[in-house]
Amino acid sequence: MSALDTAARRSPLTRAQLAARVAADIDPGSYVNLGIGLPTLVADHLATASGIMLHTENGMLGMGPSPEPGAVDPDLVNAGKAPVTELPGASYFHQADSFAMMRGGHIDVCVLGAFQVSVSGDLANWSTGAPDAVPAVGGAMDLATGARRTVVMMSLLTKDGAPKLVERCTLPLTGVGCVSRVYTDLAVFDVGPDGAHVVETFGTTHRELEALLDLTLGPAPGRTR
Amino acid sequence: MSALDTAARRSPLTRAQLAARVAADIDPGSYVNLGIGLPTLVADHLATASGIMLHTENGMLGMGPSPEPGAVDPDLVNAGKAPVTELPGASYFHQADSFAMMRGGHIDVCVLGAFQVSVSGDLANWSTGAPDAVPAVGGAMDLATGARRTVVMMSLLTKDGAPKLVERCTLPLTGVGCVSRVYTDLAVFDVGPDGAHVVETFGTTHRELEALLDLTLGPAPGRTR
Amino acid sequence: MSATVFASSALDALGDVADGATVMIGGFGPAGQPAELVVALLEQGASGLVVVSNNAGNGEDPLARLIQHGRVAKMVCSFPRQVDSWHFDAAYRSGAVELELVPQGSLAERIRAAGAGIGAFFTPTGFGTPLAEGKEHRRIEGVDQVLEYAIHADVALVRADRADGVGNLVYRKTARNFGPIMAAAARRSVAQVRDVVPVGALDPEAVVTPGIYVDAVVELTEVTSTEVTSTAGTSTVGAVAAGTEGLV
Amino acid sequence: MSATVFASSALDALGDVADGATVMIGGFGPAGQPAELVVALLEQGASGLVVVSNNAGNGEDPLARLIQHGRVAKMVCSFPRQVDSWHFDAAYRSGAVELELVPQGSLAERIRAAGAGIGAFFTPTGFGTPLAEGKEHRRIEGVDQVLEYAIHADVALVRADRADGVGNLVYRKTARNFGPIMAAAARRSVAQVRDVVPVGALDPEAVVTPGIYVDAVVELTEVTSTEVTSTAGTSTVGAVAAGTEGLV
């Protein structure tokens, strides 16, 4: 939050601002998994002195940024199969150990993209439900349910303007009740058994969000509406 | 078998002869676990050029013999907690991996001691059934059921002269139908779904064994009685 | 398993693979894929294969060609759809290949279970999703969990970095991925390595796959591997990437 | 878990342990036993503990004294009976300590399951024996298997050889035993090590316990450990040894 100037709060966040907002909530020393796609941008906003260690589910802790051109190692890739680097203190492990690390609740924070998130924290991010699509899931389900805290980072609306924070997901689920916070360009929400609560807005209001999403949204903890 | 002279066949085997008899059946290049107690003697009869690798379930492959006095390493012990050594080609692993190796059927031969073995291959070797005894099992049950081939090495009779190869075990079981061969001072038996068969005798006869054990014993495969 | 054999060619190392065999193929995309062993499998000729592998081939890599040539009856994998998985896509859409889609962590754990002699296990992953439909489930310590069964294989093909003279293996970086668990899960495991070193040259504390899990090794100094894109992000694939296209 | 803390004493590293806590203690007999951390637990004072450890103390070692002093309500272990386990023997016979006896491989796998987020698993070990009585079982692929549940802990105490500055651990030889799986299975894991080395000094390929599993580390250069008997065989213990006494 401190990384954002107040101007940012008066308009929707850019992708970089959204990544900075997510990063601001991650405690120093945390172990973090960043899902492929948009969440990878969060890495650029983690302070190098923070001691945050990145996990990549294909078998590594201590993942560093993309290599310099010419320094690509085909044996060193991230979950998106893009080349990465190794930071001091890194370790490698096989797939069963890597997913044990996820599933066993050892990762502090997992940041995922989403097609839809429900107000109760259900996540849909692996299938568009298109009947002719080749299905693929990868580590999405393990990531969603395994981390101590799973948060979503997404645009609040689809390209067609449909809400992605919904009463009930209509797309195939990735996990049930697994998401606790949703970071979007227009607002940050807490979701869970008590429904969705607005934590912070960017260039919009609580009332406008309710109209946009056709949802009843609770106030942020400690605030009245 | 080749390690035994013909004289040995005319009298009961000594412990060393019995160990040599067991060792003679172990193929070169095998991975072998020797249970604590009597089976440890088998190690002395494995040819050094055989390429046989010993597994100890506390987390090692490539276990070597006892160290020279003064070369004891408290971090390097066998399943009986006695000091051992490391041979070239050794590897270390944690307990879950070590028992995965056993349970997953990767050990070629496991040689165990026993209180009782039944003609169908049930094994009793962890509890005397004494009501006041502190119970302890260790790796006995995993070893009994995990190896590709589990064989027993024991005296045929207890100190009191009671048979240890029995129709049905009366002591608490370690595993059901897990033993395939029983090496004793008086004879070698195959056991299993078809009952007990005599493979070889030492200073006794098939008929004498049947009388001694009060069992009907089949002939060795390929022989008539 | 008995002592590791050192073969002079990938085809010799591969040995006989029966039609209809279940074959595990290591690798996470190109990283750790035993390309030459899969080429040998192409040459060897077995068909009707059940292939267990995280992905279903990239571009014209050997696994993709195995699918293209109709040799695979079924894929068991977590992420068959990639930007360049056209051979699998075509075979899947035509009905030529069956797909069992498994969440990646459950795939890994099911492979581990086979190697570890565990028949089945309860995992929270996938509960309440289409991938758990029809599967037994129960609540354990307050968490809903799905019963998943071990996946055994007839043959595992893996790529490691080095082997010693008794078949102990070490890997390189994230190319380790599925190698260790697949080597343990198959009745016969074959490893292609960059280098065979003498017995005693690997640190016993750092052996990743003990030789007991390795039946055959072939040294292939010139390991070809599909090029990895050199810019992070361009190879980002799949559902989540697609899902974020609409952002801002 | 968040970043590893480096403590200046075993007691500081141990931190708070509540009465009634479940405490995992590494080691296979003396090898790998975190003796100083158990001494700290003695000093710290928590009672009514459930201790998960392969053995139940040897002679006057710290675990034996913990039992002697009535601090342990229940032991979960595979081999409590040893030639020198007199304190456990007395406590067990007097009814002061409860015992849950678990086959060693099932103990290890149940501990691993806790760390891996697996609720329960089916294993062939113990089927048809008294230790499977009352447990759910079923036949999977022709093999009768028993359902065993994960064992979680509040605190794990382990001994490793070296830690680096982010808490990555490596062990020495067979002292590795239960350390890696216990460190992963507990909410809070504490490691005593012989040496703390700088970040980057451990080979990333050879790290056994990644720092994510380690909450606190204490460097204890003078690790005391119970003497191992120097002649093979004299410390041979337990049922099988007893069972073979009658031979020849």
UniProtKB/TrEMBL annotation, chains A, B:
Parts forming coiled coils: none
Pfam families (alphabetical): CoA_trans
Presence of the UniProt keyword Secreted in the record: no
Keywords of this entry: Transferase
Family according to the record: Belongs to the 3-oxoacid CoA-transferase subunit B family.
Descriptive protein name: 3-oxoacid CoA-transferase subunit B
Organism, as annotated: Promicromonospora umidemergens
UniProtKB/TrEMBL annotation, chains C, D:
InterPro entries membership: 3-oxoacid_CoA-transf_A, CoA_trans_fam_I, CoA_transf_BS, NagB/RpiA_transferase-like
Keywords, ordered alphabetically: Transferase
Cited SUPFAM superfamilies: NagB/RpiA/CoA transferase-like (SSF100950)
SMART domains attached to this UniProt entry: CoA_trans (SM00882)
Key word Transferase present: yes
Family of the protein in this entry: Belongs to the 3-oxoacid CoA-transferase subunit A family.
Record's protein name: 3-oxoacid CoA-transferase subunit A
Organism: Promicromonospora umidemergens
